[in-house]
Write a structure and sequence with these properties.
2 copies of one chain form a homodimer. By secondary structure, chain A is mainly alpha-helical. Chain A folds into 2 domains: 62 residues, Winged helix-like DNA-binding domain superfamily/Winged helix DNA-binding domain (Arc Repressor Mutant, subunit A); 48 residues, Penicillinase repressor fold, CATH 1.10.4040. Chain A is 58% helix and 8% strand. Chain A is built from 6 helices and 3 strands; from the N terminus they run αβααββααα. In chain A, strands 1-3-2 form a 3-stranded antiparallel β-sheet. In chain A, a hairpin with a 6-residue loop joins strand 2 and strand 3. In chain A, helix 1 packs across helix 3. The first copy, chain A, binds a DNA duplex (30 and 30 nucleotides) through helix 1 and helix 3.
DNA sequence: AATTTAAAATTACACTTGTAATATATTAAA
DNA sequence: TTTAATATATTACAAGTGTAATTTTAAATT
């Protein structure tokens, strides 16, 4: 497992986020979803969709006259892949150092902290 | 504060990591440091240094015949900037969702977990 | 059927990035 | 001092990305 996820550019992520929320969707659906969000021309969004298909990150149904698009990888899968390469690049590969930096920062609420603590508590003692 | 950090590419990060470890350093110092690490030609490293200077991420001393280079931003500052934009892009801006994903993954050792817990415990109740 | 409209396909173009090579200036060596 | 070595400066070039516009095709409207 851990199938290779092709790299997804920043603009492409926006489009994928829309497809992950609901799919399949036509190009127009996607364009509409992004209105107000980003101010891209329709053609721009269309280009991004095409590139995602080329890259094999999204798929397309061509049965109907008007195509519909859908993700080929789960959001979770893509997030992990991206996070892994990010951490390697920025934190020398150690997850902990990043977590430490973020936890030290004041970006977490009281509730967040409690939640994180309980997740850590629940972690079963690693066997092996 | 939170000065705008110019964006640093993947290859450029490698070079900055060398400068953060010690500075100032000559181009040759940097090239040597990267030997075995990456297999870049000397000219490539030189180009990266020049680009970092252009971007204003690194500085250069031209007093001596042979220039020396140094970082203009701290590693911590760059990491936070990069992490912030990363989290916005990939996790919709919520730090917690990312932390959760990472903590759920099995990338943390027993000791890491203990350390993270104590950091969370030490976090003073937010005054605010 | 001719025309307008709307999808889809193709093409565009500048900027960034990876990955250097070539040219120039200067210093050190012969 | 001519030459070789080295540092710096300039140039290169393809792939990826942001951001579309133009062209073609097919369907809907008049």
């Amino acid at each position: 497992m851990t199938e290779k996820v092709p790299s997804i550019s920043e603009a492409e992520w926006e489009v994928m986020n829309v497809l992950w929320k609901k799919s399949p969707q036509t190009a127009n659906d996607v364009i509409t979803s992004l209105q107000g969000q980003k101010d891209w021309k329709a053609k721009t969004v269309r280009t991004l969709l095409d590139r995602l298909v080329q890259k094999g990150v999204a798929g397309v149904n061509k049965e109907q006259r008007i195509y519909t698009f859908y993700p080929l990888y789960s959001q979770d899968q893509c997030q992990r892949a991206e996070a892994e390469s990010f951490i390697k690049r920025i934190y020398g590969g150690t997850v902990k150092s990043m977590l430490v930096q973020f936890m030290e920062e004041d970006s977490l609420s009281e509730e967040d902290i409690e939640e994180l603590k309980s997740i850590l508590d629940e972690k079963p003692k690693k066997k092996k």
